[in-house]
Amino acid sequence: MKEKRLRSLVAMGVLPLALVACGSATNDKPNDNNPGTGASPGVGGAGSTPNGTGGAGTTPDGTAGGGTNPPPPSVCMPGIPVTTQIPKLLNRQYASVVRDLLGVTQVDNGPVADALIGDFTGPMTAPAWAIYQDIGAKIAAQVMADPVKKAMYMSCDPAAADCLKTTVSSFGRKAFRRPLTDDEVASFMTLNSATPAGTPAQVAEAILNAFLVSPSFLLIPELNTEVEANAPTPGAIKLSQQEVATRLSFLLWGSVPDDALNAAADANQLSSSAQILTQATRMIQDRGKTGGFISAFHNDWAQVNNGSAHWYKGQHDTGKYPLYTDAGRTANQAEMGAFFEEVAYSNGSFKDLLLSNVAFVNKDNAAVYGLDPSAYGTDLKKVTLDSATNPRPGFLTRAGFLGSYADYDSTSPILRGSFMAIWMLSINVPAPNPENTKKTVSGTFPTQRAYVTALTEADGTDCKGCHSVFNGLGYVLENYDGIGKWQTTDPRGGAITSDITTATVNLGTGAKTISSPVQLMTEIAANANAKKLYAQAWVAFATGRQPNANDQCTVDSLSTKLTADGYSILSLLGDLTQADSFRLRVRGSL
To answer: What local confidence, expressed as pLDDT, does residue 278 receive?
Structure first.
């Protein structure tokens, strides 16, 4: 039956899918557990796409944050940006789709997304195609063996008259995000007339497998050709109602439209921006679906998905940090996504990402926050931390960031400060002397700040140009130790007094003395460039496009709205659907 099924898939045109188209000085005790000591290289800055490429910010060597990509635009050019007409499902989208359509969340005892080859652009590759075929077959078999999952796929007995044809039409409407043509229905039904004949259940499984490896499932084609009258870009093509619904569902849910959105599309109720916003507002309130998307974006914005960043890579010396455990690091990672989602669904705004005292703890990370571990279990529990005794303004004071941006046996003002300077503020860090070598310094230092200052900021030191920009930002966070616990005595022996955590920094608006984490995060939250980078990140992540002059108009509009208190993250999500480029496309070379 398997060989016959594959021959039928070839006849249906499924298999030819493959043809579709500053070396920062840091702790003087390097170790294998804490790879890399410089700030993250430019492989996915603020405003990066879902693939983690491009974006704003500068690297320690002074180059644009997008590596070989051009720096982001600064001037809006009205018009519709060129986009691909047939984007491929991202792995996270594929996993969400099979979860929502079929109830499948695992393949081979692991998450569906982990079974796929890494996200990539360009034509389908042979290794990726082989994996899609293998996973499609396994998912189809899993569905047919599970009554609950099978009921999501088909609502009738496959042996009953017209059941298979009805299933092709009904399931196909959801899987292809549009009604099937008569020819497509007939092509799928050829599997019911193959010889030797399979049982009705085998045919139903083969049909499902065929859907899962079809280009119309794996790709998100936009094929409408109707030109929009009076479009901002002459010749811009209006998306069909089903194509608008698909864009909307993949934007907010990373998955296929639900019945209500499909009904709106079929009733021609997605023509205007107001109609689109009505559906978007409804969909955003579904936290179970949109919450994950919000967390995914913020992890991208904060460089958690940047393979060259430091998030969750290093371990710590348990002699100096007895509270450190691998389980605690895992809890910290889960906390970050939960924090981002909670801020959004508490009607939070951009500034709340930098100032909220909400945390999520369990028995493994509670002690780092000064809480009693015995009061918590394995599940994360939402808490509001005491800002008087243990100031925790925003995600940059959570253990996940502080422990990741530290060294094995000490804090790292360099790593923490450079992260904020580059990724949060896009400060232009001076390029270091290419002939620099790693510095060393001898002597006894009572605090980590004293050590780092002597190492990098002494007069005549080659590193001074770079480090004078971002060291101060890191010094302000010296009350948080190498795993993020509040400390008043430095492990080197000296007291961490106010002069240790006070620094003169320039956030792009002139020198200013900052004396506390709350003051620093308040300044970043109010920084116009930080808001612009955040808006740019949202537009790039939502569209899958590199920053460009056309999208800059949307970025500018969102940046202006972000300056107003009370402009929520959820409101921003809705506004992402209001740009002309959301319902129009243009032809052109990418």
So the answer is: 98
Which two tokens mark 119? 């996200």
Asked whether the beta carbons of 406 and 317 are under 8 A apart, the reply is no
Q: Minimal CA–CA distance to 254: which of 222, 212, 303, 220? A: 220
Q: What are the boundaries of each domain within the chain? A: 88-218, 297-526
Residue 43 backbone dihedrals phi, psi, to 5 degrees: -120, 30
18 pLDDT above the threshold of 50: no
pLDDT band at 109 (very low <50, low <70, confident <90, very high): very high
CA-to-CA distance for 208 and 215, rounded, in angstroms?
14
On whether the CB atoms of residues 576 and 557 are closer than 8 A, the answer is no
CB 234 within 8 A of CB 586: no
- Residue 6: pLDDT above 60? no
Token output for 189: 């039904």
Question: How far is residue 468's CA from residue 475's CA, in Å, rounded to a whole number?
Answer: 11
Tokens encoding 297: 């974006």
* DSSP one-letter string for 516-563: SHHHHHHHHHH-HHHHHHHHHHHHHHHHT----HHHHHHHHHHHHHHT
Alpha-carbon torsion, ordered 559, 398, 57, 522, to 10 deg: 50
SS3 content of the chain, % helix, strand, coil (to 5): 45, 5, 45
> Whole-model pTM?
0.84
Q: What is the DSSP string of 70-87?
A: PPPP-S---SPPP--SSP
Q: State pLDDT tens for residues 196-233.
A: 889 999 999 999 999 999 999 999 999 999 999 988 89
Q: From CA 396, how far away is CA 7, in angstroms rounded?
A: 55
CA distance linking residue 362 with residue 377, whole number of Å: 6
